[in-house]
Design goal:
Elements lengths: L1 E7 L11 H4 L4 H11 L3 E7 L3 H11 L5 E5 L8 H9 L4 E5 L21 E4 L4 H12 L2
Parallel strand pairs: 1-2, 1-3, 3-4, 4-5
Family: Belongs to the type-II 3-dehydroquinase family.
Pfam family, one: DHquinase_II
Organism: Winogradskyella pelagia
Length: 141
């Protein structure tokens, strides 16, 4: 069994409530059950924080023993050199995901400090972005 950590950053605890026209009407916890039912051979560990340092600590905690990390750092994607450095420092492959197409939004969202250190990036497929990330980690050798 593979163990995959899903780490969500700021404001993603408000999925289903926050800007439903951009992020949809479903909470992440509800969607996580869908993932667990679809990928029964995967153990998912879910973590969400609005605090940059806590996200870095969680990456350090899981980054040498898990089979993969799916990271949606939210707005920290565009501002946090520290999270980018944490992704670079760990050996577990990280897939960066975004629910919205960040390139169709404000120009400051076009920069990612995570992408250069991530195994891959999945952007703009709604919550299905997480599903695609899981599939990529399952197929990884």
């Amino acid at each position: 069994m593979k163990t995959i950590a899903i780490i969500n950053g700021p404001n993603l605890n408000l999925l289903g409530k926050r800007e439903p026209e951009v992020y949809g009407n479903q909470s992440f916890e509800t969607y996580l059950e869908t993932l667990r039912n679809k990928f029964k051979s995967i153990e998912f560990i879910y973590y969400q924080s609005n605090i940059e340092g806590e996200i870095i600590n969680k990456l350090h905690e899981v980054g040498f023993s898990y089979d993969g990390v799916i990271l949606n750092a939210g707005a920290y994607t565009h501002t946090s050199v520290g999270i980018g450095d944490a992704v670079k420092a760990i050996s577990t492959p990280v897939i960066e995901v975004h629910i919205s197409n960040t390139f169709s939004r404000e120009s400051f969202r076009h920069q990612s400090y995570i992408s250069p250190n991530a195994k891959g990036v999945i952007i703009g497929f709604g919550l299905q972005s997480y599903d695609l990330a899981v599939q990529s980690l399952i197929q990884a050798k």
